[in-house]
Design brief:
Elements lengths: L1 E10 L3 H12 L4 E5 L6 H6 L1 H20 L14 H25 L3 E11 L2 E6 L4 E11 L3 E3 L12 E2 L1 H4 L8 E5 L3 H12 L3 E5 L11 H13 L3 E3 L2 E8 L4 E7 L6 E5 L1 E4 L3 E3 L6 H4 L22 E3 L10 H15 L13 E3 L4 E6 L2 H6 L4 E7 L4 H5 L6 E7 L5 E8 L2 H14 L3 H6 L9 H9 L8
Parallel strand pairs: 1-2, 1-5, 2-3, 5-16, 7-14, 8-9, 8-14, 9-10
Antiparallel strand pairs: 3-4, 4-5, 6-15, 11-12, 12-13, 17-18, 18-21, 19-20, 20-21
Helix pairs in contact: 1-9, 3-4, 3-6
Length: about 475
Amino acid sequence: MSEDKFDLVVIGAGPGGYVAAIRAAQLGLNVACVDKRGEPGGTCLNVGCMPSKALLHASELYEEANHGMAQFGVKIDKVGLDLKTMMGHKEKVVSDLTGGVRFLLKKNKVEYIEGAATLKDATTVDVALNKGGERQLKTQYVMIATGSEVASLPGVEIDEKQVVSSTGALSLPKVPKHMVVIGGGVIGLEMGSVWSRLGAEVTVVEFMDRITPEMDGEVSKQFQRILAKQGITFKTSTKVTEVKKTKTAVTLTVEPAKGGDAEKIKCDVVLVSVGRKPHTAGLGLENVGVVLDERGRIETDAHFRTNVAGIYAIGDVIKGPMLAHKAEDEGMACAEIIAGYAGHVNYDAIPGVIYTMPEVAAVGKTEEQLKADNVDYSVGKFPFSANSRAKANAATEGFVKILSCNKTDKVLGAHIIGANAGNMIAELALAIECGIAAEDIALTSHAHPTEMEAVREAALATDKRAIHA
């Protein structure tokens, strides 16, 4: 076994891991980044964020061509679906992006090692190379950034053909006649939207009384109404008790979450989308005594340090939302801390986005959280139906909602449902990061005509000064 010496070994080349490796190298450390997948980019680039966004965009174009363009005077006859080409576009996006990460690692002189890493001790990482053989990496620091994996339901076997995870849902060979999505969260709603637009009947089964239960309640209700208008059927407050497969169909048994009469739902594809779990198995954490919490996450302090000196952890394997950009922020901060600088992440300013159409985006606190904390706050809301650009684009569903503190006027939370919400939320994340007031947004000139004017109007509305509503 060959032995190599590094200042830092990053285990995992997802958004958190490769960003951390690059940042550490920029700061002068000798860095290796190890990943057993082979292709860098983690779940996000390979089977998560990026391929799903490619399909979401493609399916939106298909839907627009079929049903949305005539109102603008653009007439298209005989719109067809070439699923093979659509999937080919998705694969090219993945290939281009993972190749780009390889280039960035090489450019920054990070050694990328393809193989499965195991901690032998706090300063030794054994790597079983994908191409055969082993390497032993000696290092001063280790950063664990191995991300997360799909969670399932007890007794439900995912075969990636009839019962699929998000990975299988990205590569179905044909449009299902009927897809049942178990779980009304981000991934299930995004993938359900893709296949619904392409012609599938989609039913979403959610245990809680509403979809996206962690979102602001008002936004969640509006979101469900919009998706229902698009043809998706919802069964909330409902649990799945059995999933049975035959060669040609899948039958689910469901019943009310609080108990009651069961019913059967027959379909040809089931998407299990009940969340993700940290990927910590097989890393040798038990060899060095790294402590996990009750949910299998690695316990860390505010500086991403585990209980074992020299071992750090970031991203989906530690507490907090499982988001690629959260992992990136932590990766940069952790690399800076290891290199002797001050690294910090403001968790109140991390946005979340659902890339359906319309999009849903949020940052900071929800109304429910502010009420629970007895915070004195104001609500400013502005509908896209009163926004000139949204009217011109025939994209008037949704609204911008800003929550501000009545004592300081600082923005505490913001929630947007509407076209381009994912881009629009950045201004409000910056507002929370910088601790600015709703009045600051209200006084800032916003270009006309843009959807961003709705953000300004919502800020004005916190003081009951909205002009156009």
